[in-house]
Amino acid sequence: MSLISLVSVQGFILLSVQAHLPQLRPPPCNMISKEEQCVEAKGFKATIFFLALYLVALGSGCLKPNMISHGADQFRKEDPCHSKKLSTYFNTAYFSFCVGELLALTLLVWVQTRSGMDVGFGVSAGAMAVGLAILISGAFFYRNKPPQGSIFTPIARVKIIISVIPIFACTIIFNTILAQLQTFSVQQGSAMNTRLTTSFHVPPASLQAIPYVILIVLVPVYETCFVPLARKLTGTSSGITPLQRIGVGLFAVTFSMVAAAVIERKRRETYVDSGELLSIFWIGPQFLIFGVSEMFTAVGLIEFFYKQSLAGMQSFLTAMTYCSYSFGFYLSSLLVSLVNKITSSSSRHGWLSDNDLNKDRLDLFYWLLAALSLLNFLSYLFCSRWYCSSQSPSADPPPGPHGADVNHHLNFTSSKHVAADRDIL
């Protein structure tokens, strides 16, 4: 992790240097103005830019899943007390991520706006360097697991991967909805009245901070209030099982799109009928509901992948959580293209083809996503039940020492949790 953190630091430093030196970037221009022609970055300038982006992406993609699994490895699964604390760790880790995201969307944006992009990227590089120093400072205190397993372990690993693919696939629609909140919902806010006071306007892009504010508030409440109460009712150390937690989030996120569709229809009708702009605060509920659903689904998915994996696979399966984000955004682009193609005709434009929300039908697109989300939740109920039944420990292990080793690896984690996971329905 230390080496890969250096990769991210180098990427941010390269971005900062390019943003600072005029000879490494195109001349500044107003991209909003139709009269001004912006110069495209080509050749060496473009190479430097994309190299920096790929370094940051490589570092982030390798660092996050390994950091989560490394922290979880510090707990001993065989200790009931540590097993209970493991769920708390996942909540705390995600809480830390949310604090970082909130700082990036508020404080860092303010720094970049006030002092320039070069300073903003420099601050990011400095923050990564401080985090790396903190990580290295605890190197002598970490519990490092020695290599373990047998020649049959790869077979068990393939079985684990195949078994979690349906659960993984059911979270893609969830991240497709996240893509809408970061794109169309921001555009939706731009078409509303952003005035907060006579001299201050709410930046539409800052709406993306709402889910993280909700998470920062609700994660401690979930851990200190909900988990102890649920633990008494269910007897599960984490209150509810990871599969149940994912299911709650997948169901709740449907209402985020329902709220978005209702508000967008209201916004459009208000503007068309009277020319007035609806207040930007009306779209707050869709971000709020998504924040609540993310607290359940995102943390539950990370915990599920870690607990159901074999020794040595925790980082790999945890990384699948972030692959779900990528697939969700790709699916979003595909859906927009398909919707435009299907709804377009010679006599009318597609739902999202005009780039003008007062002419487009973004509300119908939101209703489509709500329907897809509900269908996705129903499919998740089926997949989670199938997973629980398929992971039931075999009554008779295969004969021979190697067969027993395979059975031990296959059921080391999943057999301890599958009984509780049956309660998802």
From TrEMBL:
Quote the cellular component terms of the Gene Ontology held in the record: membrane
Q: Where is it mostly found?
A: membrane
Any Pfam family matching the protein = PTR2
Q: Does the keyword 4Fe-4S apply?
A: no
Q: Which PANTHER family match?
A: OLIGOPEPTIDE TRANSPORTER-RELATED
The answer to whether keyword Transmembrane helix applies is yes
The species is Ensete ventricosum (Abyssinian banana)
Tell me the protein's name: Uncharacterized protein
Fetch the SUPFAM superfamilies from UniProt: MFS general substrate transporter (SSF103473)
Q: What UniProt keywords apply to this chain's record, in alphabetical order?
A: Membrane, Transmembrane, Transmembrane helix
UniProt topology in membrane = Multi-pass membrane protein
Locations listed in the record: Membrane
Q: Which family does it belong to?
A: Belongs to the major facilitator superfamily. Proton-dependent oligopeptide transporter (POT/PTR) (TC 2.A.17) family.
Q: Which GO terms describe its molecular function?
A: transmembrane transporter activity
Q: Which InterPro entries match?
A: MFS_trans_sf (IPR036259), POT_fam (IPR000109)
